[in-house]
Amino acid sequence: MIDLERHGDVFTMTMNAGENRWNTTFVEEVDKVLNEVEASEGPAALVTTAASDKFFSNGLDLDWVRQPEEHPQAGDRTTFADLFMKLMSRMITFPIPTVAAVNGHAFGAGFMYALCHDIRHMRSDRGFMCANEMQLGLSIPVPELALFRHKLPGHVFFESVQLAKRWAGPEAKAAGIAEHIAGTDTLLNDAQARAAELAPLATNRAVYQGQKETIFGENAALNHPHGAAYMLRNMSDYYD
Asked: What CATH number is given for 2-199 in this structure?
């Protein structure tokens, strides 16, 4: 379901469950891999990609959601929401640099997972990233909206979550969603090379993770009620 390889300072996690739809079992398997990566020491970075050349992740496992008793292998439906959201929180604050090599469609929860990475590389020739909940008649949970708002420019945020815009690679790069686009033959190598450049940032993992918490965690700097001028005038208020 999930493969993990390491070359030098770069871990590569490959999701190989077909369309890589999210259910409780899939969440648990990803979490196990992250445990292994996090147990490493020193410089490191993580690249996430998919074995499929069509789907990075096709979102929530809707068949299981609608009829969980018919898909017992997908795990306990009642625990999913909490486990999934906590996994996304873990990913967005992961203590090493993370790069998503989006080599196919990333819809709904798949788009969300890609956004939880520090950087996204995307295919230039095929695949969309899309928050398609509105098309499915579903509301996006508030915590997920917060994630999208933190990660996307304002107009891109609205087009994504409210208008369900599908972002192809070139559009995603122009909009600031993806840092880099490439053909399928070089996408993974490019992502791994970028990860290797970033790996030294994880030498001090407490600092790398701690600043992510300041950006995305409790009382996040991005959401602080005071403006930058006030904060600069009162620097002593912001030291522990």
From this structure: 3.90.226.10
The answer to whether 156 and 177 have CB atoms below 8 angstroms apart is yes
> Distance between CA atoms of 37 and 20, rounded to whole angstroms?
20
Phi, psi of 239 (to 5 degrees): -110, 140
How is the chain split into domains, by residue range?
A: 2-199, 204-238
220 sits in the region (left: phi over 0; alpha: psi -120 to 50; else beta) called beta
pLDDT in tens, 177-193: 999 999 999 999 999 99
**Which candidate, 21, 22, 187, places its Cα nearest to that of 119?**
187
Q: Of 16, 44, 33, 4, whose CA–CA distance to 205 is shortest?
A: 44
Span 122-169, pLDDT tens digits = 999 999 999 998 988 888 988 899 999 989 998 999 999 999 999 999
* Residues 3, 153: Cα–Cα separation, whole Å: 33
Spatial separation of the C-alpha atoms in residues 15 and 2, rounded to whole Å: 5
- Look up tokens 């590569």; give the residue: 12
Amino acid at 202: A
Give Cα separations from 224 to 212, 217, 219, 220, 239 (angstroms).
15, 11, 7, 6, 15
